[in-house]
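Worked example 2:
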Amino acid sequence: MRGVLLGLLAFLFLFPRFLWAGGLERINLSPFYFHQKNPETGVEETEILGPFWYSFRTREASGWALRPLASFWRLPQRKEFQFLYPLGRYWKSPDRHRFVLIPLFATDLDLEGEENPPRHRSYFPIFWGQDAKGRSYWGVFPFYGRMYSRAGKDEILFILWPLYTRSVDEGNITTTWLWPFFGKTEGPTEKGRRLWPLYGYYAREGEYEKSFFLWPFFFFERTDLYEKVPSERQMFFPFYIRERTANTRTTILLWPFFNRYQDLSTGYRQWDIPWPFFQYAEGPERSSRRLWPLIGRTETEESSSYFFLWPLYTYYFVEDETGGKEIRRFLLFSRFHRQWDDYGHFVRTSNRLWPLFRYERQASGLEYLYFPALFPFDDEGFERNWGPFFRLFEWIKDPRGYSRTKILWGIIRYESGPGWSLSELSFLLRLEKRPQGGGLSLLSGLFEIKKDRGRLHLKLFYLPVF
């Protein structure tokens, strides 16, 4: 094996590099090795062992991928490193640094508008950090820990969690023993008690009053106390639920069998009997008819949606002052998407017929197509670290008219541009066409004949004959 590898490396260094149109340097041993460099555009690409290694460099960006282990992309205003995707990720931008290795490690630094930016690091179960006020904290979960300005609280302290937890929020102190069973809140604006699941009561001055009894069956809530007409919710789940706001009324009996909603300000009414199978809704801004999963339609001032034999076919359309989009789905995963701006000008179209192909075209003129498209969702990390393994066919076209086709990870390649084209079967066969000539090459020069500016050239055994 070692001798084969050394022989391959020696052959690689001795292999003839082609200089052709525009001074482009190119060597093709696909799928083992491929390299191309264009001094005019500043674009350089390298592939090794098909999809396993890829690197690129342009005047604006660069990157590499050792698939499926790791990848690094350097883009304007951002650097991103991914490893063992989707577990590990690091990215750096002018306003944020973040490094995550799920579930073991995380560090976060938010630089946006902060003289003393907060920092948080964790090597599970250990964590430490510093908040924007310069207060340091640390902990070893679940034994002991203290945090500042985390999880929406000013301060959090835990000892032998869930045995004891204490949090502070705007001067209100919440103490919990054996979470979630026993809890108490005292403070200038908030009070509460919890003996879960038997009884609980919490109130915040000017905002809400909430209580439960025999959770999850009995609830009573009053929210938006600062309003002239507060909102109320009463619940004896699942038999009776009643919600009231200044403008709306909701009544639910034997959830989900009978749901009724009414907006007094607009006259809108909606019935679900039972949800989600039958829905009837009517109002000046929205109407809906649904007999799920057979057929359904919903219309608003800005959008419309339909389905037929869900999930066989769904349709969604929306348009507002910023633009619009139209999405059709077949069996959920096959998705056809079209988008336009506020002037009605084309922005983007993206089509995926799962698991056969994925196609996208952008307003800039960029187009690409690949086959098959096994992953049913759009995910940049998956496409970067795993996607090329599953692509037997790729095609891309840039705004300048340059196009490239790859089949079987580059064993078959076809490239073209204004007035020229290049076809290759790895290093075995090469056919080139240009405005002032072209040529045919076998085994990269073992036999080669080409015409350049009216003159004929011939090579045998890599040596020029004339």
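The CA atoms of residues 232 and 419 lie 72 Å apart. The chain has a mean pLDDT of 88.
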